[in-house]
Design goal:
There is one protein chain. The chain has 107 residues and is mostly helical. It contains 6 helices and no strands. It has helices at residues 2-21, 36-50, 53-56, 63-73, 75-81, 96-106. Helix 2 packs across helix 4 (63-73) and helix 4 (63-73) crosses helix 5. It is elongated and about 65 Å long. The termini are far apart. 16% of the residues are buried. The mean pLDDT is 84.
Length: 107
């Protein structure tokens, strides 16, 4: 009986930890269709922002630097899409396409 309770406790602990790791994002979604002219523009903006003093203080592959670059590209779009839940190290950015769509609507 003790062994059964131990495994039951272990299973519930693992299951609840897995559920807590999943994030449900509720953010504004912007349509984005690939346009080579806009892709070049956003890459140039990204490069410019990556080389600013504010963003170069962070290590290259950190979420803090990615958040800094996104804010630099468009503070308004960053606030709409990322501010409530900034990127974390190791997170796969599923909001970037919507971010680019937001930036495209600004211009």
């Amino acid at each position: 009986m003790k062994l059964f309770l131990f495994f039951l406790f272990f299973f519930i602990t693992i299951l609840s930890a897995t559920v807590r790791l999943e994030k449900n994002f509720d953010y504004p979604k912007y349509a984005y269709s690939r346009n080579s002219q806009f892709e070049d523009r956003i890459k140039n903006l990204q490069y410019s922002c990556e080389t600013t003093v504010q963003c170069t203080i962070y290590h290259k592959e950190t979420a803090a630097r990615k958040n800094c670059v996104l804010k630099c590209i468009s503070k308004k779009c960053y606030d709409k899409i990322y501010a409530f839940d900034p990127l974390e190290d190791g997170e796969i950015d599923q909001r970037y396409k919507s971010f680019k769509g937001c930036v495209a609507t600004e211009n």
